[in-house]
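The following record pairs a protein chain with its ligand, 2'-O-acetyl adenosine-5-diphosphoribose.
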Amino acid sequence: MAERPTKIVFVLTGAGISAESGLGTFREPDQTGLWSRLDPSKLATPEAFASDPAAVHAFYNTRRRDAAAAQPNAAHRALAELEAGLTARGDLLALVTQNVDDLHERAGSRQVVHMHGELNKVRCTGCSQVQAWTTDLGTDDICPVCARRGSLRPDIVWFGETPMHLSLITRALEASMLFVAIGTSGSVYPAAGLVSHARALAIPTCEINLAPSDNAEEFDEALYGPASETVPAWVARLLGH
Ligand code: OAD
């Protein structure tokens, strides 16, 4: 009997999926967006870290604490169910997130690609080693690998830096039969360019968001509403429940 080829569903998530868990998004039009209130050039760039590491640490310490206090919502849980459901029938979910929180993992997702890094990891600017780190980080902390003091930074991709796992992401996308973007404004590249790459390969595309994103016209299908409602309904449809 001929083997059935594995089907890959590619899902890209952004800050909107964690909004109903109480974590702020970046670009809401009012003052609720993180980057509407705070200047990213002073908090999320290598230059900011070089000139005022304490301010950068304070910003990420708050975000790390907020993420630890947050709970996954129905949208995170639905994607964990999607992964389990697809795997059970011999297919795969490629879950790529721009989010630095761990709510996908805590909802039960087993394979998550964090293209913008993770709040719960630090990297040594001296020896480049990455370590798990769940408490506050400061300029006096010592690298557990090379023992340098003050060399640890959040393992987060800052403006001007290259996102992580790009070749893995491209290979997974190119093998996919469906591309879905959830809770992302489509304004930060290269993540925002994945939909046009999918379109160029004739892969069907779907946007699930509160409102049309910056690149909404690139999607074949759109589902608008809060992720805690739209994502479970979409997952149920895909799994044929
Ligand atoms: P944005 O803040 O740019 O966009 C969030 C999107 O989520 C918007 O389109 C909202 O309409 C939508 N949204 C808000 N609440 C929602 C809800 N309850 N349900 C569904 N959608 C909702 O966040 P991202 O696109 O993730 O990078 O931002 C991309 C990157 O910009 C982030 O990863 C971050 C930031 O600078 C780094 O930190 C490296």
